[in-house]
């Protein structure tokens, strides 16, 4: 499992396309549900998942408990890792770095920012490789 993380429009997708040839994309930005990952993942391809901050915001709307959501995501990452090993194909998580900007005024927006940061830490822990992307360049940090 690989984690690609960086700011908005920093070149994360470009880096993934340079690293991987055949990809199955699951994107919250296109309205995809995170629960459809197994249906979207085509045989002999890399599963690329992006839009985590949107999926987490949806979960906060329905659950409101960030600790429960984080535990669920930790378990989900472990399940993804196991499936990656079974299929012998890679998974790439693209995450948005949103912790370096202005602190949101709205409590709900702060919760999304905080939860996204915690979940990114959990993803980095599980990932075999982590790349930070800025200005179209990437640096392997794990």
Automatic annotation (TrEMBL):
Would you indicate the residue range of the signal peptide?
Answer: none
Which EC main class describes this enzyme? transferase
Which biological process annotations from GO are given for this protein?
cobalamin biosynthetic process
Q: Does the keyword Transferase apply?
A: yes
Q: Which SUPFAM superfamilies match?
A: P-loop containing nucleoside triphosphate hydrolases
GO terms assigned for molecular function: adenosylcobinamide kinase activity; ATP binding; cobinamide phosphate guanylyltransferase activity; GTP binding
Q: Which InterPro entries match?
A: CobU/CobP, P-loop_NTPase
Pathway where it operates: Cofactor biosynthesis; adenosylcobalamin biosynthesis; adenosylcobalamin from cob(II)yrinate a,c-diamide: step 5/7; Cofactor biosynthesis; adenosylcobalamin biosynthesis; adenosylcobalamin from cob(II)yrinate a,c-diamide: step 6/7
Q: What is its EC number?
A: 2.7.1.156, 2.7.7.62
User: Which transformation does this protein catalyse, written as a reaction?
Assistant: adenosylcob(III)inamide phosphate + GTP + H(+) = adenosylcob(III)inamide-GDP + diphosphate; adenosylcob(III)inamide + ATP = adenosylcob(III)inamide phosphate + ADP + H(+); adenosylcob(III)inamide + GTP = adenosylcob(III)inamide phosphate + GDP + H(+)
Transmembrane portions of the chain: none
Keywords, sorted A to Z: ATP-binding, Cobalamin biosynthesis, GTP-binding, Kinase, Nucleotide-binding, Nucleotidyltransferase, Transferase
Summarizing the function annotation, the protein's role is: Catalyzes ATP-dependent phosphorylation of adenosylcobinamide and addition of GMP to adenosylcobinamide phosphate.
The entry sums up its family as follows:
Belongs to the CobU/CobP family.
Q: What is this protein called?
A: Adenosylcobinamide kinase
Species for this entry: Halalkalibacter alkaliphilus
């Amino acid at each position: 499992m690989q984690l690609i993380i960086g700011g908005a429009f920093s070149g994360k997708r470009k880096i993934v396309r340079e690293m991987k040839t055949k990809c199955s994309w699951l994107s919250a930005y296109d309205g995809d549900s995170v629960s459809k990952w197994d249906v979207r993942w085509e045989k002999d391809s890399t599963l690329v998942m992006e839009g985590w901050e949107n999926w987490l915001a949806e979960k906060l709307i329905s659950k409101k408990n960030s600790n429960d959501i984080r535990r669920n995501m930790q378990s989900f990452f472990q399940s993804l890792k196991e499936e990656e090993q079974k299929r012998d194909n890679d998974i790439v998580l693209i995450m948005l770095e949103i912790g370096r900007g202005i602190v949101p005024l709205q409590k709900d927006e702060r919760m999304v920012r905080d939860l996204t940061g915690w979940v990114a830490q959990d993803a980095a822990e599980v990932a075999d490789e982590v790349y930070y992307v800025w200005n179209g360049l990437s640096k392997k940090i794990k």
